[in-house]
Every structure is written in structure tokens, then in C-alpha cells.
Amino acid sequence: MNKITDQSGEADTNGKFLSFSPERSLGSKINILLKASLSITVLTIWSVIMLLVASATLFRARRLYNEYLAKWLARFILWQWDIKVIVHRKNEIPQGQVIYISNHSSTIDIFAILSLGLVRCRYFLFGRLRRFIPLGIIATVMGTFFTFPQTQPEKRVRVFKNADRTLRRTGESVYLSPEGVRITTGSIGHFNKGAFHLATSLKVPIIPFYIHIPGHINPGSGIDAEPGTIHIHFEDPIPTDDWKLDDLIENKEKVRDLFLGYHKKYGSR
Hints:
Layout: E1 4-7, H1 26-56, H2 62-80, E2 83-89, E3 99-102, H3 109-114, E4 121-126, H4 133-141, E5 145-147, H5 153-170, E6 173-175, H6 194-202, E7 206-212, E8 228-234, H7 248-266
Parallel strand pairs: 1-2, 2-8, 3-6, 3-7, 4-5, 4-6
Antiparallel strand pairs: 7-8
């Protein structure tokens, strides 16, 4: 089983999911397709298990679904692809409600993030991914907020308003990527406003973390991942108790500047 090593100190549909690097040999492509088939089979079986467990617990044991069932599913998928995750933390994460954000450069990200088992945390996911039924079942059981593309701003606003109400009521934390889509150019992309609207409204700390996936193992928007090690670097919390909506864009860009710094520090390793 893949081991997560803790060292203290929204998804897109761009690209083709079954894309391969052009230099791949036929044997390599077959091996990857076999791994992908096993992953899909495991996801399908696990979605049924999660649905049965959720039904037996009247859908009221979200910590069980998110922090255990989803975590171990993600760790199995990473183990199957021979991908190790090492977590680096500067400080302990503040207790209570927080908003987690990260960069988003790969198909691998979703499994790396779920493998962390973030405490009392919900997630945002691009709604069209529900078309893959096993993933849709798992995400729904986990209480995921399903987003719409930028071309449907009114629907996006409704999703974020609902998330605000839900998080305010439950006191749960939440994860989302301000980039919104996988940025496969080796850079930090444009930041959307949703995460910063939530932070401004809820007045809770933002916990940024940078996911470094070495280029030689990163499949980008495809599935042809190579064995290797991912490093997740948790950075200092960003206080938001004095944030105002009038400063939304400025605060958003300040946080993006931090990620540009993380990218420069960690991304070339």
C-alpha cells in the first residue's frame, strides 16, 4: 500500500483523458491501459461500497467517507501506479474551519489530495465529471460541491452561495483549486475568484499547499503517469479576518504571487 510520509518542517476537462506521450511504445501504452482498467474497476467497486456504507449510516458519517474510505481508495490508486506522496509541513494546520487551496497541474492531483485525509473537509469538483458514474457516486457521498464552467457564471454563483451557506452551518473546511483547470504548461495559471469570495465571507484562514509532480512522471491531462514521488508542501496560513469584498481582486493576486514564489522554490526540483 502506498505510504504517505509526513515530514514536518476545481478539475478541468481540457485535453484528452486517454492521451499518451507521442514517444510511448505500444507495449508501454498497453501497460498503462491495463493499469487504467484496474483503476476504473477499483473505483467502480469502491463506489458501490461507499454507497452501501453511506446508506447504512443514513449519509450522516461524512468523516468516515472522506477521511477513511476515500483516503484509502486514493492511496490504493497511487500505490497501483507506484506513486509515492511525501508531505512537508512548516507548522500544524490551525484547528477549526479553513479553506485549502493548491495549484492544479495533473490528473494525479485528485488522488494525491484525497490521500491526505483532510479533516472535516469537503471538496469542489467540476460537475461534468459526474458523467463518470463511479466518480460521481463517490463525490456525491462525500458531499462535494459540483461546479459549472466559467461560461455559466450564474450557475457558478449559485454553487458558491450554497457552499457558503453549507460551510457556515456545518463549520467544515473545504478544498478547491483557484486555477480551476489543470495547468499543464509548467506554470501557475490565472486564479478564479471563488475561493477568495468564500474566504472573505467566512473569515477563516486559507491554507495554501503546493503540489510538485516532477515532469517525467506528470501525465498532465492524460493518464500515462510514470512511477515516482510527489511532494506536497504546506505553507503558512493566510489570515482573512480583515478581508473585504472591495479588495477581492487585490487579495486574489497577492495569493497568486505567493504561488508564483512556491512554484519558483519547489517547481524546478
